[in-house]
Backbone:
């Protein structure tokens, strides 16, 4: 009988809630010091996880938790790109 697969859990840097890794978005600081969203979860670089909600992103930015987790200061352009990548349906909240 096969053993059930272990599902990795990750913590959102915004709301500090734990969830399945596949349900969270991975934000990566690449080796070139760019901050991007990693849809595959396998991109090289320092990563942090956030819930796919704008509220969690804003909370992580306000508390500077995302900056601490990635070890880089975030510019307004990067923050706008992150909010846009969460999708138009996620902005109401």
Residues:
């Amino acid at each position: 009988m096969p053993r059930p697969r272990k599902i990795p859990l990750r913590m959102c840097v915004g709301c500090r809630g734990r969830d399945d890794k596949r349900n969270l978005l991975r934000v990566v600081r690449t080796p070139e010091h760019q901050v991007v969203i990693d849809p595959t979860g396998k991109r090289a670089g320092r990563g942090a996880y956030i819930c796919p909600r704008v509220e969690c992103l804003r909370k992580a930015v306000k508390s500077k938790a995302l900056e601490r987790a990635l070890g880089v200061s975030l510019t307004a352009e990067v923050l706008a790109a992150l909010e846009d990548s969460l999708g138009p349906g996620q902005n109401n909240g």
Notes: Residues 9-90 form a domain with the Hypothetical Cytosolic Protein; Chain: A; fold (CATH 3.30.1230.10).
